[in-house]
Write a structure and sequence with these properties.
By secondary structure, the protein is mainly alpha-helical. It has one domain. About 70% of the residues lie in helices and about 0% in strands. The chain is globular.
Length: about 190
């Protein structure tokens, strides 16, 4: 998806805020590659470090809840922000709050709770999300793209997305008997049985 998006952006050559928001979607794709593919053990790390799960291959985060959080809420909100920011800049603020939530979680929360120095998603948080968040807010402020109400609504929806559509969704969809189990490669290396 990141490669397809890069080709499309090269062909269309958007600029300004439109470019920033499509790059934000691309950064989400790259972030999810780091979390779920290379090295890819984010699910097991989250279940082990954050929830001290005794069955980190499925509880509380499972493959179904991961798909709903990342594809439905993640891709959905970032695409809507890129498409409709002119009509509703607050959508873009909301996605930036999700990116900020990822920066904070991957930099501090997961590393502190897991007593680790690296977790999948940390590198792309800093290489992708940090500069995009900076350019977004710089552009909004310098070009006066948002009203105080846009800031209020956008930040509020961003907090809601982070809390209800990420954190709570994992809890609500938790099922110790779920058929949506992660393979061993998705597990935190320290949680795998010898």
């Amino acid at each position: 998806m990141a490669i397809v998006l890069a080709i499309a952006l090269y062909a269309i050559q958007p600029s300004g805020m439109t470019l920033v928001l499509w790059l934000s979607l691309g950064s989400l794709f790259l972030h999810q590659i780091e979390e779920w593919r290379y090295p890819g053990y984010f699910p097991g790390m989250l279940n082990t470090a954050l929830f001290s799960s005794d069955i980190p291959d499925r509880y509380p985060l499972n493959a179904n809840s991961g798909m709903i959080v990342n594809v439905f809420f993640g891709w959905g909100s970032y695409v809507l922000a890129a498409l409709f920011w002119r009509q509703a800049i607050w959508l873009a603020f909301a996605t930036m709050m999700v990116s900020i939530g990822n920066i904070v979680a991957h930099t501090f929360i997961f590393n502190i709770k897991g007593k680790i120095l690296y977790n999948p998603g940390l590198i792309t948080s800093w290489l992708c999300f940090v500069p995009i968040v900076y350019f977004f807010f710089d552009m909004v402020i310098v070009e006066h793209l948002a009203t105080p109400l846009d800031w209020f609504i956008g930040i509020g929806i961003g907090v809601i997305l982070n809390y209800f559509c990420v954190c709570k969704m994992i809890i609500w969809l938790a099922d110790r008997n779920t058929p949506y189990v992660f393979p061993g490669s998705f597990l935190f290396p320290n949680s795998q049985k010898n």
